[in-house]
Amino acid sequence: MKSLLDSLEKLLDTGGIKKDLVFLIVSGLFLLAEIFNINPLPFNAAFITIALCGIPIILNALIGLLGKFDIKADVLVAIAIIAAVFLGEYIVAGEVSLIMQLGSLLEELTVNKARSGIEKLVKLTPKIARRIVNGKEEIVDMDMVKEGDVLRVLPGDTICVDGEIISGQTSIDQSVMTGESVPVDKEVGDMVYSGTINQYGAFEMKATKVGNESSIQKMIELVKSSDANKADVVRLADKWATGIVLSALTVAIITYFLTKDVNRTLTILIVFCPCSLVLATPTAIMAAVSNATKHGFLVREGNALERLSVVSKAVFDKTGTLTYGQPEVEHIESLDDNYSEDDIFTLAAIAENNSEHPLGKAVVKAYIEKKNIDIKKADRFQMIPGRGIVADFEDKKILAGNLKMLEENNIDTTLISKKAQKYLDNSATIIYLCVNGKAVGIISLMDTIKENIESTMAEIEESNVFPVLLTGDNAKAARFIAKKLNIKKFMSDCLPKDKLRYIEESQALGHKVCMVGDGINDAPSLKKAHVGIAMGAMGSDIAVDAADIVLVHDDIRELPHLLALSRKMMRTIKSNITFSMILNFIAILLAVTNVINPVTGALVHNLGSLFVIINAIFLLNWTKEIDFRYLKENEDKIYDDISNMAKEKMLTSAVSEVNLRGLPTKSRILFEAGSQSHAVNKRLY
């Protein structure tokens, strides 16, 4: 029996959503043809609707009942369809079948399984390694590497196991582990991790953790295990199905024995059908998902918005989420009267012109953008991995690098270290510039915070969601960003397992956590969180695959709208359910008292479903309500936002002349509201 039911279930699933959609359209057309008496067929066209939509419902009900002892809403619907056909009410049977299948299709369209992205993590692990045996290099399969083996890693290689550098120095891209955008300098004695990328110098390392104990393999396991606790939301109609079915059958049987009226009994079964309940959730979700799409969100999990509505804590990664993820030149300071700041900038650009390091590229990019001229070429260029650049230009020997580079070249660092400290305290990265053995200047670079994130964090907190910063960056960088954005809770130096642990601990305390991130290192946390939101433009494919929602344009200023939308969606669902229950109760009373017949019962039943759909449609263009209290308290600040934008864009009066996405959400709302009837002025109203 079980094998037969399994085969039947597999047969019903053949063709997927495309088949269901075609069946639904064809069924609807034939049912309309029968209703309006334009049926060209020699038999009742509603039979086609019953065959395409009704029979699958009946078979699924049997599979659930016989194979899993599961009484779903389909059981009651199946009984109503069979009874309607038995009594010759074919249009009624077709209508019930069509509406139920519509609800199932909408639910199927909105509940999508997120791909795990695990196969992409696996691809990060190289298949071979360069092992050193008796001074000779041999290429071996990665599985053959054992703890204690000495491996050689060349520039551009992905490190295959965890280990300790025993010779050489380099810079390592650790973004896969920490999310930190700037490569980390490594030398003898430092640890390196599998999955990270060697940027520049060749080095030798001793393997310390191999196979499943290596960092990248542990991350794969984290992603696998983190998704285990995410169950799909069960349809409300199915949750209540047992009670609905038993109640319907009880009332119908009692009515039949008391009245012997088959039509009245059928009417009861029809009005008891939970079609509007089945539609209550998926229609609202579909409309809300469409709304979210207009605001730059791709909702990959149908129940993600439902889960988002109860979130109490939002955890943010820093790099690429709150910041742009690219270092930019912030300050240039000269320490020598013989060199102006422009001279320092020019010499640094000349030295870094051929550099592949992100900091060097940032200096060159900033110089070209500011000066709009070609950079002169150095006479000699040498990159020292883990240290910086040595370049000869005319009569000058230029060193551009870190503090260790200066110390190794016996350059006095007393003054330059003191000057650099104020920038380091603000989480900046420093390029120290020396000319002919003397420290002459500093270039400070920072990963720039995205525009208007401060107001976004304030809006999120106002919506009773507590923001938290978890970053792989150092404590100074984390503290600076947290203070700048008024985020009260932060953690620094976070590895993937640290972020995951924080989310697990928060959820164990009863918090519903939303994780917002972009890096591969965020994937386990995105999976584990109650809701995971990934950056789509800058984010890694693995992070996107692990998330429930993708922010396509990386503009998290829209996040307050999404939070409000999810709560509005849940209010709509609850109002739909309440209306459906009240309508069904009234219809049941009318059916029991023989006030309505099967056709009228089907009409009432369909009107309830129509109300649910129309109520959900209002979500399509819903926007976050204006907080007039906030506008009043912050009018001057918001006016400054608008004025600055107006000056930049030479605004006259039309809203369309300004890119309103450049303003904080509330400022845009105020501007849109005020500009409908007044020119921009100090009071706005």
Rg, Cα atoms, Å: 33 Å
Task: Please tally the β strands and state the result.
Answer: 22
- So, the CATH homologous superfamily of the domain at 297-322 and 450-562? HAD superfamily/HAD-like
Structural class from helices and strands?
A: alpha+beta
| Quaternary structure of the protein | single chain
Helix content: 40-55%
Largest sheet: 7 strands, mixed
Using the coordinates shown, work out and report the CATH topology of the domain at 297-322 and 450-562.
Rossmann fold
* Mass-distribution shape: elongated
The CATH class of the domain at 297-322 and 450-562 is: Alpha Beta
How far do the termini sit from each other?
Answer: 73 Å
Query: Number of helix segments?
Result: 27
Q: Residue ranges: pLDDT <50 for 5 or more in a row?
A: 111-119, 225-234, 647-663, 669-685
Mean pLDDT value: 79
CATH architecture type of the domain at 297-322 and 450-562:
3-Layer(aba) Sandwich
Catalytic activity: Cd(2+)(in) + ATP + H2O = Cd(2+)(out) + ADP + phosphate + H(+)
Subcellular location: Cell membrane
GO molecular function, one term: metal ion binding
Transmembrane segments: 20-38, 45-67, 73-92, 240-259, 265-289, 577-596, 602-622
Tell me what the structure shows:
With 685 residues, the chain is α+β, with helices and mostly antiparallel strands. Among the domains are: 126-213, Calcium-transporting ATPase, cytoplasmic transduction domain A; 297-322 and 450-562, Rossmann fold, CATH 3.40.50; 326-447, 3-Layer(aba) Sandwich (Calcium-transporting ATPase, cytoplasmic domain N); 628-675, no CATH class. 50% of the residues lie in helices and 17% in strands. The chain contains 27 helices and 22 strands. It has a seven-stranded mixed sheet with strand order 10-22-21-20-11-18-19, with helices on both faces. A six-stranded antiparallel sheet has the order 2-1-3-9-4-7, with no helix packed on it. Strands 12-17-16-15-14-13 form a six-stranded antiparallel sheet, sandwiched between helices. β16 (429-435) and β17 (438-449) form a beta hairpin. The longest helix is centred in the last third of the chain and has 34 residues, at 559-592. It is elongated, with a radius of gyration of 33 Å. The model is unreliable at 111-119, 225-234, 647-663 and 669-685 (pLDDT under 50).
